[in-house]
Structure prediction request, 434 residues.
Amino acid sequence: MRGDTKPQVCVIGLGYIGLPTAAIIARANCPVTGIDVSDHVVETINRGEIHIEEVDLDGLVRGVVQRGLLKASTQIAPADVFVIAVPTPFEHDGKHTPDVSYVMSAATEVAGVLKKGDCIILESTSPVGTTEQMRDLIAGLRPDLKMPGQTGEIPDVSIAYCPERVLPGKILEELTHNDRSIGGITPRCARKALAFYKRFVRGTCVTTDAKSAEMTKLVENAYRDVNIAFANELSIIADHMKLDVWEVIKLANRHPRVNILQPGPGVGGHCIAVDPYFIIHGAPEQSPLIRTGREVNDAKMHHVVARAEQLIAENPGVPVACLGLAFKANIDDFRESPARYVASRLARKFGSRVSIVEPYAGELPAEFKDTGAQLVDLDHSLENCGILIVLVDHDVFKVVPSEERSSALVYDTRGIWPDASMETAEKAGLRLAS
Ligand code: SAJ
Prediction:
């Protein structure tokens, strides 16, 4: 891989990060082979279609597949650059222990086709030390190749860690424009990876060591989790003190150095509620604040269930609509969603009294089966439901004018209708600030 010769790239793991990354690299005219364990995923992509939802991804994938720049396979292929973007879930031990086995099996596959001059980049969110662990594994499998950072000699291959930091719903835009931290096992590895990312990233790429880059990714999401926990704790305090939390946050944020985030029904998604545990696991004694942040955000979900149950039980027979199932606004991702958890708990308890409004869903998830709850459209809920529980701040909910919901009791967990909580409090004799 010299001069401006386009490197042959292999992206391992074609999920929410791997597929958009593969497509963007292919758009930069580098031939990409995407590897996935699933035949369904591979066949779908080779037809020029996609198996996940993400803004503008369908057109991009169709284009690069048609131009022959992206092909998918279940078999690893030789390449100049390997990008690993496989999941790093928890082990099933109930202790939130990170499971890096998918990373290690991807590294084992890469080791089988690795040659002198290649570069391996890990993108999966990983506990600190994983990139070096991967290097050690490959070193054991390929004693013929000199690995970076093990001897003073010039290594045969480069290994780096470079986390993604993209927001679901804006992945293509953020993959291109966000800054990147590129952590090499050695500075030479970082420079090699930097030259690769510069082909398709317009944001600033900053080089560092692998462990710092691993920790940076975890810290970014733990920072957000702790800050959302602060907002969620405030909302529970405000409930207790009979204050409007939205009003308090709005006023406090007028201070030039205060920026309180928004309370909600809890923290969902696959990153913010997960990554802090990777830090806690690595330094349990040293991370009481991060641990507590997690606990506060999880507890908020149960608080919302309890408040909603109270409102529904105090108004017997009144039809209820839960607005939203997604884990956050304006996306169709219902995995790890506090809204979905709250709505399903209410459906199980109150059955056919409960309707669900989710413009991004074609049908209700499996746990609603046999509860009697129905998926309805927004207009139907506004016309028929006397209790509205806002769980997601979708734009389509935000623009409902107050006249269309003025006769309903509203529990707005997202603060999208600032006028509603006061009215509901008066109508129900309750104070529902959070
Ligand atoms: N949330 C609140 N209040 C807020 C902000 C968010 O309750 O003020 C909730 C959301 O409703 C959602 C959860 O937090 O349930 C997470 O949403 P998010 O939009 O904050 O983040 P994610 O999970 O979609 O993506 C995060 C991003 N990380 C940061 O903003 C630090 C993204 O940049 C990362 O790439 C992504 O995690 C990841 O892959 O790690």
Summary: The mean pLDDT is 95. Residues 210-241 form the longest helix (32 residues). The pocket of SAJ is lined by residues 125, 164-168, 220-221, 224, 228, 261-262, 264, 267-269, 271-272, 327-328 (CB under 6 Å).
